[in-house]
Amino acid sequence: MSVYLLRRLIQAVGVVLAMSLIVFVGVFAIGDPVEILISPDADQMERERAIKALGLDLPLWQQYGIFLGKALQGDLGRSFVFNEPALTLIMQRMPATLELALAATFGAILIGLPLGLYAGLRPNSVGSKAIMAGSILGFSLPTFWVGLMLIMVFAVQLGWLPSTGRGETVTILGTRWSFFTMDGLAHMVMPALNLALFKISLVIRLTRAGVRETMLMDYVKFARAKGLSPFRVTFVHVFKNILIPVVTVTGLEFGSTIAFSVVTESIFAWPGMGKLIIDSINVLDRPVIVAYLMIIVLMFITINLIVDLTYSVLDPRVRLEGK
Amino acid sequence: MRYSIRTAALAGVSAIAFGAAGAAAQNLTIGVGSPVTSLDPHYHQLSPNNAVSDMIFEKLIDTDAAARNIPGLATEWRAVGPTVWEFKLRPGVRFHNGNPFTAEDVAFTIQRLPNVPNSPSSYAAYARPIVRMEIVDPLTIRFHTAAPYPLLPLDMTNVRILDAETHATATTEQFNAGTMAIGTGPFRVQSHRSGDRIEFERNAAYWGTAPAFQRVSYRMITNDASRTASLLSGDLDFIDQVPTTDLARLRADQRLALSETVGLRLIFLGLDHLRAAGENSPHITDNDGRPLGRNPLKDVRVRRALSMAIDRGAITSRIMEGAATPSGQFLPPGTFSHVADVPAPAFDPDGARRLLAEAGYPNGFRIQLNSPNDRYINDARIAQAIGAMWTRIGVRTTVEAQTWSIFVNRAARAEYSAHLIGWGSNPDGSHPLRNIMATVSSERGWGASNRGRYSNTEVDELLSQALVELDEPRREQILIRAQRMAHEDVAVIPLHIQTNIWAMRRGLTHTPRVDELTRAQDVRPAAAR
């Protein structure tokens, strides 16, 4: 087990290093951030001063070297735009994204699993067919369109929910959370639903397919023949066996919700990391882009690790050898 | 609650959907389209930052809605010698923390401008002409310059004054945290959440016209559709950067009102003047796609033909939905050094074809027009329309639209033959002349945004005269001559000047600004008028 964890750790460091190098070279290839950040009427002297102030006058390998040296001390550089440490900026906005992703993912499981189970157990009922048709919509409607429609219907037409932004927050352990106020929850409903829609459909489809397959297995037939109650058959024998693909996909989806909820965050003006990264890419704010992607890589590695560990709990046949 | 009774009576008729007008008169929620990056007024020169700075801090010389200079923290100013400007300061002004405003604060501010660490776009250029400051008395300060410098008042409209005592060691981070965002302006910062919102409250001790609202919430909503929807849902009272596609609908909505004014931002085409007449321009070929062997854009007849081929009226009415005015120069009518006898070039495709034939291109040539697609209002669509108009006179045009970060870097390296770009002018002809139409020169600091590398020694000569002329009427005449000369030579192809548009719930009134700044002090309850 510890050998396995150690090996995963070494892999993680390698991936993070490679990522930082790729982003460094990539941003350099796109262009000069100063050309974007500087006031258009700045003269050549001011342009040179800015290039120097941001450390962009050095050759690229030197810039990367300085970055690595500082990164080892836990300093991922200062944002060109905000003049604040990139890590601080990201961490300030992480709670907003995290709570949105958590709400969306749990929502997806709470809604998707029962519906999928129902559709798998009663594949020919009218209800199941409606669920499956609905899940196709969930897959195929683009997020930005659904988001705008939600705003138009629930905020503009009906006036039930606030249209954009994050509501009232409660500060716990130095970070702001909106889980604990009514106003905060009201602001969260639409963006969370918008993010969850795709995931709900995914969970429904995975669960249904799993149930349909498992129901035909010998051990299910045997359990039935033994005279176990349908409830026990479904929730002990079937349910446990269909969870592995659901856990894998939900885990990865959770990761990508945190990392790439850009569209939803912009439409609902949700002050999370997604908005930060897209704004940073637009102005080539390299320290923020690099720090952000490094954090995301770490996060995905962690999530994958947790998913693997969950497997071994769900299915004793899985052994963590890392081969 | 000064307005509540009258407001309620009027609003009861006109703004049924919005209900409680009494409470609304105390609070204002603004939604802006561009994020504010810093509350440090000297860290990053950016319009959204300047707008918010104008609510917290003040300048020696302020500008009114039409961008004319008006007294701010200075009550009067004049050149007392060829190289000395004297400013008389307003007495009795206090910072939000109670400190009095004096000449020491002005001197401190000028010294701070070049010394803001890590600034990506500093205000240092405004301090550079000043070689020495002389505090005559606590309310009089003199700036000594190395050479006569007529633009000093204009520069001072960009410099927000800080307190020498409070801000001696203030860092940008402390400004951003709100703790150091202390000025003399009409609003005080209560809280700032970067990229999300800034909460303000009225500065009760403000020396000027009291702001109409007790509290202002300044929210950043970058998505155009969401910003409009939030206004429609009543979550916002006021928005800027109204998308042109929503204009017709918003105009028709009884619950809303719009405010608009012709701005100072010209959209224009830059042309390749860098390659000599006998060289190939990077994106121009003959009709078979082979190198042309010469740069047709060096011929003024070709440039004029390309300008005449553009139906500016069609672009402003169809693509811009009326939110722009065709123009043949950088400054709109009514501004200092606007050239009255340079109109927007008339649409004349036949004349354009004749001119092309005269210049030796009866069958035209091929050109690529480059444009950003996420920077100016409808930028890529305008480029597409121009591509079609040019093709109609025989100049077969392909359009390539890219994201701004890539486009602007390549444009700066003069890699394009023709490019669409915009310029927000200061209301002074020297500003576009010096930055866009003057010969590129690092020593003089000219032509930093001259991405077509236009160069005309006569224009340069006039500009250098204007930059040391202290007599305003004479300076205006020189600038008019220089601009007329550059535009008759088709240095660039001007297209249109954008209209700045704001939308608000009925019951509010707004003074629209030509400089595009969105500031809470410009919004008032309509009944108060």
From TrEMBL, chain A:
Q: Its membrane topology, per UniProt?
A: Multi-pass membrane protein
Where does it live in the cell? Cell membrane
Question: TM spans, by residue?
Answer: 12-31, 100-121, 133-157, 177-198, 242-269, 289-314
> Where does this chain mainly localize?
membrane
Q: Which UniProt keywords are given for this protein, alphabetically ordered? A: Cell membrane, Membrane, Transmembrane, Transmembrane helix, Transport
Task: Write one Pfam family the protein is assigned to.
Answer: BPD_transp_1
Q: Which SUPFAM superfamilies does the record match to this protein? A: MetI-like (SSF161098)
Signal peptide location: none
List residues of the ABC transmembrane type-1 domain: 94-307
Give GO BP annotations, semicolon-separated: transmembrane transport
| Tree of life domain | Bacteria
A single GO cellular-component term from the record reads: plasma membrane
Name of the protein:
Peptide/nickel transport system permease protein
TrEMBL record, chain B:
Would you say which domain of life the source belongs to? Bacteria
Q: Where in the cell is it found?
A: Periplasm
Any one GO cellular component localisation term in the record: ATP-binding cassette (ABC) transporter complex
Entry GO MF terms? peptide transmembrane transporter activity
Q: Name one Pfam family in it.
A: SBP_bac_5
InterPro entries, per the entry: Peptide/Ni-bd, SBP_5, SBP_5_dom
Looking up Gene3D superfamilies in the UniProt record yields: Dipeptide-binding Protein, Domain 1, Dipeptide-binding Protein, Domain 3, Periplasmic binding protein-like II
Residue ranges crossing the lipid bilayer per the database entry: none
UniProt keyword annotations, A-Z: Signal, Transport
Q: Where is the signal peptide?
A: 1-25
Q: What positions does the domain Solute-binding protein family occupy?
A: 70-432
> What GO biological process term is on the record, naming one?
peptide transport
Q: Which family does it belong to?
A: Belongs to the bacterial solute-binding protein 5 family.
**Protein name as catalogued:** Peptide/nickel transport system substrate-binding protein
